Every structure is written in structure tokens, then in C-alpha cells.
Amino acid sequence: MASLGRIVSSRHFWPLLVFVLTLLLLRHLSTDFFSISDGRVYGSLVDVFVRGSQVMLLALGMTLVIATGGIDLSVGAVMAISGAMSAWLLTAHEASAGVAIAGGLGVGAVCGLWNGALVAWFGLQPIIATLILMTAGRGIAQLITDGTIITFHHAAFEALGKGYALGVPISVWLVLGMLLVIGAVVDWTNLRLSIESIGSNATASRVAGVPVARVRLLVYVVSGLCAGLAGLINAANIAAADANNAGLYLELDAILAVVIGGAALSGGRFSLTGALVGALVVQGLTTTILTSDVSVHATRVVKAVVVVLVCLLQSPAFRARLQRMIRRRP
Amino acid sequence: MRRLLGPRMLPLAATGLVVVLLYLAAGAKFHDSNWFTYRVLRDLVVNNGVLGVLAIGMTFVILSGGIDLSIGSTVAFVGILSATLLGQGWSPPAVITLSLVCGVALGALMGWLVASFDLPPFMVTLGGMFLMRGVTLLINDSQIAITHPTYLASGKWPIHPAAGAWLIALVVALYLLHYTRFGRNIYAVGGSEQSALLMGLPVWRTKVAVYACCSLFAAFAGVAQSFVSLSGDSTQGVAQEMDAIAAVVIGGTLLTGGRGYVAGTVLGVLILGLIQSAIIFANINSWWTRIGIGLLLLIFVLLQRAIQQRVDRQ
Prior knowledge:
The complex is a heterodimer. Chain A has helices at residues 2-9, 13-29, 44-67, 75-92, 97-120, 126-145, 155-162, 170-188, 191-200, 202-207, 212-238, 250-260, 272-291, 298-314, 316-328; strands at residues 35-37, 40-42, 150-151, 164-165, 168-169, 240-241. By secondary structure, chain A is mainly alpha-helical. Chain A has a single domain, classed as ABC transporter involved in vitamin B12 uptake, BtuC, CATH 1.10.3470. The radius of gyration of chain A is 20 Å and the shape is globular. In chain B, strands 1-2 form a two-stranded antiparallel ribbon. The two termini of chain B are 23 Å apart. The chains are: A mainly alpha, B mainly alpha.
């Protein structure tokens, strides 16, 4: 019984349970849940991972930012900028896929550096600092694309969004790679400790000798890089750069994913895998609703209920009231 | 005059000066006499009236130390609701009353969640945003025209509906914030919730009322929007909450709460509107508007930060 209690109170338990339940429902609804043909995986299960890859990438960066007590509203706009940059390099300069990818990632990192500098060096509130790029970002992306939607044909670049490697979609490999890289860096250095201590109490961390400004700068750069990569996948997926719609509202999905994954918006402890599970829950719900006969628009209503429920379950005030109610009943 | 140049009012006066200078500088740059006409000023007010109402509502929430992301969706919801019900033969007063009641109900629900369970306002109102947009799209996912004679006749009103709504919202907000106990409580809760609680102020009630108030203003903006566009549009007000936040911040209200003025918010909306008009007038590509607003936001926030640090040092 004690071990069961430990499993239930684990931070991953509830998001994982919801994800598994969603998958069961999806399996029940879809004709092709999971299949392998020509050595490649197909089906609605794979679909959840492929479509969720962009939000998963954003959530990886976002969870680090949120753990420091910050927030990054600009990731959707950064996706648009990086997609526009790579499409522009591919078409106007006939660059190779490598150069286009490097360009997109580079511009993502620069955007992250900009956000980080405003937060770490100028001491702006994260929500305002990133709101600036959120507002201006789509304008910058349109500046690069000259207000049009740039379409391109480049098999090697498009493989980022549509290709397979070892039977598994490349976008899923990219998420896995990013998870391993960030996870390794965070856990093999003292970075996790620094990030979590800044999120708990920035002033105390500074006094204790944590390089607060440098760590803050770093998490925004990582978030920018993740957004850049997500933007590349988005552009490769549709073989075009759409400055107005690429990554629209994905910053909100990413924040939602991190919160579902068990992190508090006020900062402190974080879990990379938790954020990924959160992103999968969001995408799993969306795909399930799309597969069922319910109207597409119900997705948003379901999301609204999920947001509030997750926040309530994490709230100490709500838990206390719930416990009082349970105790009073018998 | 002394009060106007005191440390409390100086930023507000400076922002007002920026509005005037921006207007004059744009006119000087264009060498175009059309800029200095009644028409440009009228368009400035008319085109930004709905955003003006939204930003005034947002000021309440931000002053209390919160944020509301749901207002853009509420505008779309009221638009679609009005158009649908008017099409079914409802009378305009009934439709408007129902819209406002829906707004208050949504706001009170969000405020209750924030105040009772200490949930982050960002997440709760994000839920509100998803909910309202979802319900709107479920009712109707396209555009519905409004053909009711009362709405059509609004073109002959002595005052444009958007301008009228902005004026009403401004007067109500000025009264509530500066002449009532509710207004004092908002500033107190935003300044320090702990202190407000220890002083025995009704923190819980104030928080719930603030969100109800903001959503009421949003629903009112939605009513104004349906009079202006004579239709309900499910994509109306997308990302408008971000413009409203930008206007409030440019107007000098601190996002941490407790400091700021509604008058500043009006100036903030006017600055956003001036940039938009100037860019249309100068015939530059529209994407420069977004970049211009972003840059201006940056400059204002950095300036406020510098002023804040100087005040803190004194």
C-alpha cells in the first residue's frame, strides 16, 4: 500500500495516467492505431508523436525558463522567424540544407539571446521582455519573407519534417536528441541545481554565489534554440514559410505542457520528461478529438477544462479543501 | 501645475507629451496637410475605440497584480452570440444584457478560481481564453451579418459607437478607480496583498470583482465591436489581449501591480494607434507596425525601469 501511495503521489503519475487513458480512447476510435509496413511505423499513435514534436521541443526549452521563474511568450514568433530564415536561404541563396538549418537555428539562438539579455542584464520582467519579441517577431519574419509565403522544394531539408530514419520519423529523433543533450548537460553539471535555486529564490542564489545572470541568459538561449528547431520542422513539414501562421499560439500550448508536466509557474523544480509527457497529453487530446466525431472546436473547450483541473490539482489551497471535505464525510 | 510635475504624475505627463510629439513629428515628416485634419484624429479614436475599452478593463486586472488573457476571445464570443440571437429575433436590449451578464459570469468564475485557490492568473485566464474561443467556434465558426435596424441605424448616431463606448468606459473606470473604496482596494491589493490582508481589506472580494470587471469591459467592447462591424466574427479579437497589455504597459502601469493610471492606458492606446496611422500614411509595409510597436514597447519599458530605479534609490 505504501508503494502504491508513492506511485500515486509521484509527479509523473497523473499526466502519464491521463496520457495512457487518452491513448486507450484513441485506440478504440481509430482504425489504424499502430502498424509497421516497409520497416516504418504508421498509425494514429505515431501521429501523436509526429504532430506533437514541435510542442515537445518548445516545452523542453520552456520548462528550463519556467524553472528559473521566467516565461517565454516569444517562442511561436521565433518559430516563424527561423522558418522564414531557412526558407529565404534555400530560395534566395540556393543554400544547402546544412546552411539553411544552421541559419534557422542561429537566428533562434540570437532571439533567445535578445530575450535573455533583456531579462538577465536589464532586469525586465520575463513576461514583458518576451512580449516585445512576441509582438515584433512576426513582423521580422514578414520582413524576411517580404510579406509572402515562401515555398520551396528541397528534399534534404524537407526530410526534417517528413523523413524517416531507422523506421521512425526524423522529427521524433530530433526531440529525443534534444532531450538527451539538454538532460546530459543539466544533470552532468551543476546547472540543474543553479536553475532550481534561482527559481526558488534568486536573491539568495546570488548571495550564495550562483551566476544568476549567466544561467538566466543560457535558459533563454536554449529556449530560442528549441524554438528555432521547431520552426525548421514546421517549415519542412509544409515545404513553406508562413510568417503569419507558423507556430501561432504554440507558446501557450508549450506553457500548458510544462504545467501539465508538474512544474509550478512560480519556478523551482522541473522535469524534462514531465514536460514531454505534458506535450503528449495536449497533442493526444487534440488527435483523439480530431479522430472522433466531436467537432474540432471542442478541442479548445477540453483544453480549457484540462488547464483549470491541472492547476487546481497542484494548488495547496484546493488540496486542503478537498481533504477537509473527504474527512468530514464518513 | 505643481501636482502635474510631481514625481507621481510626471511619467503620465511625459507620456502625454510623447503622444503630441509623435503626432507632430509624423505630420512634419509627411509634408502632407491631410495629416492635420479632423478626419485623421477621428479615425484615430474610432479605429482604436474597442481596443481602448479592452485596455481600460485590463488596467484593473494589472493594477491588482494579475493578468487576463481571455478578453480577445470574449469579444469574439459576444459578437457571435449577438449576431446569432438577433438573427433569431431577440431584441437588442435583451442581447446586450445577456452579453454583459455572460462577461461578468466568466470574469467572476476566473476571479473565484484565482482568489479562492491561489491559482496563477496567467493559467486560469488562459483557460478562459480557450473556453471562450472554443464556445464561440462551436456556436458558429464563420461570420454572421447583423441586419437588425437598431444596429444599422448606429451610423446616424451623433457619436460613433466605438468612440462612445471608449468614453463611457473611461468615465466609469476613472470613477471606480479614483473615487470609490473598490478602487483604493485594487491599488492596495496590487501594491502588497499581504499588507492589504493585514489591514483588513476585503482581498478575496476585490480580486473576484476585478476579474468580473475586466470581463465586463471586454463584453462591452464586444457589443461595441458588433455595432461597428455589423457582424459577428469567430476570429475577431485574436491576439488583441496582447495589444491591450502592450497599451497598458506603455501607459505606465507596472505589471507587478499597485501603480498606474487609466489615463495612462488611454495614452498608450493612442500611441499604438498613432504608429498604425503613421505607417499607413507613409505607405510602408504593414509588418513595420508590429516591429514599431515592439520597439516602442522596449523603449518605454526600459525608460520606466530607469525611472523606477531612480525613485527607489531616493
